[in-house]
């Protein structure tokens, strides 16, 4: 996650555009490492990420996993998560039996000339979960060992609550815009017991600083 000096994870205008080309290059390297990438609905709607390694589109790509709390809004069929070279991904929906893909994605807006896009969307799997530990256990059972969590903050908090975060890659951005509300890289409804991390690496590139922390067992 990227964060300003005063703790914001979004810009003052509400857009999710923090991070330089260098920050995105490092994210790309993590995606090449990962077996799968986990993201929230809010991340998909606000940032419209492609969730694959852009620097090497012909390399083996991580499987995208999108976690949803409800079915209140459909995901746009034009979202970049459905674009090639993505492999088919997974939707996980809280507390509900798995619905049909047409309930999740507005495939009705696609015309006949976009059959390839429709076929790609139909290949996505849909599951339900009671907590994020269910998702983690299922991914591990499928053979995924290198799981990259790209948030946002609330989703990061759910994984922290179940003690499922081993390492944190954190970018400090050289900005301040104050205000009363701070959107931290990890948020939870209540304060959790203190968890300590060890600093593994710290690097500076121009005005950005890149940290890597590992949880102390």
Can you tell me about this structure?
The protein is of the alpha/beta class and 217 residues long. The strands form 2 sheets. A 5-stranded parallel beta sheet has the order 5-4-3-2-6. It has a single domain, classed as 3-Layer(aba) Sandwich (Dihydrofolate Reductase, subunit A), CATH 3.40.430. The mean pLDDT is 90. The radius of gyration is 18 Å and the shape is globular. The protein has helices at residues 21-33, 41-47, 101-104, 115-122, 132-141, 153-161, and strands at 2-4, 36-40, 63-68, 90-94, 125-129, 147-149, 167-173, 197-205, 208-215. The chain has 6 helices and 9 strands.
Sketch the topology as an H/E string, one letter per element: EHEHEEHHEHEHEEE
- Unreliable stretches: none
The CATH superfamily title: Dihydrofolate Reductase, subunit A
Helix count?
A: 6
> How far apart are the first and last residues' alpha carbons, in Å?
22 Å
Query: What top-tier CATH class fits best?
Result: Alpha Beta
Beta-strand content bin: 15-25%
Mean pLDDT: 90
Number of self-contained structural domains: 1
CATH overall fold name: Dihydrofolate Reductase, subunit A
**Largest sheet, described in full?**
5 strands, parallel
Outline = globular
Helix/strand/pairing category = alpha/beta
Question: What is the helix fraction of residues, given as a range?
Answer: 10-25%
- Kindly state the number of beta strands: 9
The side-by-side strand order for the widest beta sheet comes to: 5-4-3-2-6
**How many whole angstroms does the radius of gyration measure?**
18 Å
CATH architecture: 3-Layer(aba) Sandwich
């Amino acid at each position: 996650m990227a964060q300003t000096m005063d703790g914001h994870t979004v810009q003052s205008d509400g857009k999710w555009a923090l991070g330089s080309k260098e920050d995105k290059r490092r994210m790309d390297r993590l995606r090449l490492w990962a077996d799968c990438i986990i993201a929230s609905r809010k991340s998909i709607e606000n940032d419209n990420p492609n969730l694959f390694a852009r620097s090497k589109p012909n390399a083996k790509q991580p499987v995208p996993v999108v976690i949803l709390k409800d079915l209140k809004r459909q995901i746009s069929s034009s979202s970049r998560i459905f674009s090639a070279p993505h492999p088919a991904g997974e939707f996980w929906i809280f507390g509900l039996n798995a619905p049909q893909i047409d309930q999740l994605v507005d495939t009705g807006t696609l015309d006949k000339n976009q059959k390839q896009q429709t076929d790609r969307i139909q290949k996505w799997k849909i599951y339900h979960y009671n907590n994020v530990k269910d998702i983690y256990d299922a991914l591990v059972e499928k053979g995924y060992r290198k799981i990259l969590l790209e948030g946002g903050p609330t989703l990061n908090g759910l994984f922290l609550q179940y003690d499922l975060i081993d390492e944190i890659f954190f970018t400090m951005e050289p900005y301040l815009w104050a205000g009363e509300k701070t959107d931290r890289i990890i948020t939870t409804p209540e304060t959790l017991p203190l968890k300590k991390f060890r600093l593994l690496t710290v690097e500076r590139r121009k005005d950005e600083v890149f940290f890597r922390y590992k949880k102390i067992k």
